Amino acid sequence: MSTIPQELFYTVDHEWIRVEGDVGTVGITDYAQKALGDITFVDLPQVGQEVARGNEACAVESCKAAVSVYAPAGGRIVEVNAALADDPGKINLDCYGEGWLYKLALASKAELSKLKTPEDYGQIVVNG
Amino acid sequence: MKLIFEKSMPGRRAVQRVPSGVRASARIKPKLLRERPAELPELSELDVVRHFTGLSRHNYGVDTGFYPLGSCTMKYNPKANERIARLPGFADLHPLLPQLPGGEMMVQGALAVLHEMDRLLREICGMAAFTMQPLAGAHGELAGAMIIAAYHRDKGNRKTTILIPDSAHGTNPASAAIAGYQVKSIPSSADGEIDFDQLAEALNDEVAGLMLTCPNTFGLFNPRIKEIADEVHGVDGLMYYDGANLNALLGRCRPGDLGFDIVHLNLHKTFATPHGGGGPGAGPVGVVEKLVPYLPISLVRERPDGSLYLDYDPPKSIGYIAPFYGNFAVILRAYAYILMLGRDGLLRASENAVLNANYLLDRLKPYFDVPVGRPCMHECVFSASRQAKKGVRAMDIAKALIDRGFHPPTVYFPLTVPEAIMIEPTETESKETLDEFIAALVEIARLAEEDPEAIKSCPKTTPVGRLDEVAAARKPDLASL
Amino acid sequence: MPFIANTDAQRREMLEAIGLSSPDDLFRDIPPELRCRELKLPGGLSEQEVHAHLAALADHNTTGLVSFLGGGIYDHFIPAAVEAIASRSEFYTAYTPYQPEISQGNLQAIFEFQSAICRLTEMEVANASLYDGGTALYEAIMMALRVTGRNRVIVDDSVSPIYRTMIRSYTRNFGIELVETLSGQGLPDREAIRRQLNDQTAAVVVQNPTFFGCVDDATDIGEMAHARGALLIVSVYPISLGLLKTPGAMAADIVTGEGQSLGLPLSFGGPYLGFMASRKALVHRMPGRIVGRAADSQGRKGFVLTLQAREQHIRREKATSNICTNEALCALTALVYLSLLGKQGLRELAQTCADKAFYAQRRLLKVPGVTLRFPGRWYFNELVVDLPLPADKVIRKLLQRGMAAGFPLVRYWPEMDHSLLIAVTEKRTKKDIDLLAHLLEAIL
User: Fold this and answer.
1) Which of A43, A65, A68 sits opposite C314 (nearest CB)?
2) Predicted-complex ipTM score
3) Domain count, chain C
4) C-alpha B139 chain-centroid distance
5) Ordered structural domains, chain B, with CATH
6) What is the pTM of this model?
């Protein structure tokens, strides 16, 4: 059973986004962190980098896998979670909180309508 | 064991100084010199020999014991080949010698090895010509992907994609990507074969080729292989043969006859050259007639008078993928091996390889889940799903085998089988060895039921237990400086 | 049958046990129309016969030449202990150390090799080796593209033409801009490089000593590159690092080289040994296997393959490279060689090579008509002389007299048809060098 907080939005690639005003905080879901196992390294994006919706923003590695983390919506990277450099395990322990990856200044709020609700994402996870 | 640097004793030395014999002292401008000598260890020859002898005793090779890694073909490495590779007539040849005017005539013996090897491999694989240049299997795959790209470019085809089964080895998609292609993964069906219908659906004019291992990584021979080849050729795609599993077919079936256009071989697998702990290997690539123009430079050709020369001129060649003619000393060993086996030896090799694998499959079936219920070829795949329900996973079973004196088989590959265990015994193992291995696995299966902890705590007999790979990756400590 | 253990009786027993009546049943999955009739190959030979055949072929090669051939592959003396250790079958019949508990010997050796390369080059991290110096240089270029996200690479033409040809072959399937700058007097031309450097440049690639044997300090080139956000890649000759300024001291970002000179025989083209080292910050983009330290649950120290998420078996088409093998046995060989030479031995060896090359220069310049092509440059153990006759002609004549006088640069630089690249190692004696001069005097 994986956790799916109700106040967030999701993508089919197991990213979550918390929207506060014009800023979105992005991370990977509980399902993803379980599948990866102990996270060993995070390749964070650069602050100031522009990303389009669906493009690779950063990468997360564990001993046995490496995955791309895509941008759930387009925008400019305004902050990255530098604490992950020393302790990537935060993603495993608290993927919705201290394990956040990066923050985006959203280019277009309209894109948010393309995201999955917690219910839709729950279906995706169940169906595998 | 202490690091070699920790054994250093200032002032000690192994190699003695040889006087230069010339009265000349080169003084290079100080700004161009290093400030301090390199911090290499200072040891006597005995120190060095003891250190590495000690390291070797913490290692395990085919010469130590059974080494049934799937798709690696850990067969015995004949010592005769080691002696041949050290013959000064080969070992002391500088690779630039044939590039000197008049130099080609001084390396006719070496060129003969390359030339004859080309001819032998053509016959074994049913191909029109071979290049010996690729320096490893994966390098051969890359060369193959580059040849595919060159062919399509030359024909003016607009091809973007290479198809690869989801059961394939990771080097296949990696090589295709480096040759500039997108990769589309084709699922396997329940019988372990590439899904024919999904393959047919994926075939369109943008497909440059299909990379297949045959038998596949489940150890299964696809009887529809010719049909598949016809479909791929139908879109002017090329059929690429990953030769990792050729040991199953030696002497009785040739990739060329199955419809493949390009073949790469792993001399360090099928042709018994040593694995070296992870190299050096060699990955010769063979092609059908229409692809010969694209082979890498240089090829060995024969003049009417029988003398051999290196052809540097093929205008459509993909160029140089290695500095010279390939890993010559590895090719030499494989050449000697083929000569020793001959026509019948190759047949007996594949026959015994397949027999040994089927014997293991049959004896172990009652104890481990089998993803595909068919007899296998030279390797068999199990799933430890039954044991995993009791908390004992494929990795635990592998570690338990270590305690029983065996090198574990491959685990977690192919990726499409949960808790996969892939076993390739090879033909050089005896029935007694197989019976001991079977007995060990049967006991492990029993313990997995009755006392899972006994398995999960393995290995217990090795100098170190399971190492924390997560910590090692999080805080990499990669050199002693 | 050679190397098959099972007797006929055992085979029958096994077939019976699995319910088959004949070995042919094992292959029933192969449709008869796909089987080949008998291979047109000779029958097998005994070990004795094979040895005789190969020994005859070996004799068909001329090895007694006095050789001044270099060009990236060098004839150095290999101490007997190197071969003795590298031929221990626990090392050479092992596979890649994916089960670390029974491969600590191999893993520790690779860790020590990585460390030795770092100490030699004064860089922070190194990988477990790559196929050869040329593919290593290509991999370094790809790494620089990944690190910078840019698309353009400057390669000076004083870098080995063999390697440059390989790099062109590999990269033609990508949209990479490869710019070759013309060297000046045997060294990279700084102005030419400065003119080509822009904000799309990922790296500047140089070699030390250059292919012409000239010794350089690329620190200023590195500064130029870094000012534009590009990396400095240096390809090096390891024996020269017994004396020469290290790429680490030049602030290089990635270092590669050919390790053949570290105890590997010439072997007509391979196997050789590529090595790669870089700054620690770049390690996650580095291709190839890497060994790191680790501990078990009882705190016992050991070694594992690490950062495997970069590699092909996990990332598949997104891998940093498709490389699967390293050259483990060759890396072990190099480590043993460096351990036997040691700190003082390597420095002395490098000095000896340089002294002999210096003697060769003096002696050859006494031959009428012979000049140094790049006077005023410093060199280590390789130098270019210009002859009054085409070098091809001279080489052919000297080969007939039992001497490989050097490599004719006209093969790669058409205008240098009188130039000869001569390498001198510790194995060349004063007599050899005097003979070369004597023969040149006779011919020219």
Assistant:
1) A65
2) 0.96
3) 2
4) 10
5) 4-56 (no CATH), 82-339 (3.40.640.10), 349-456 (3.90.1150.10)
6) 0.95
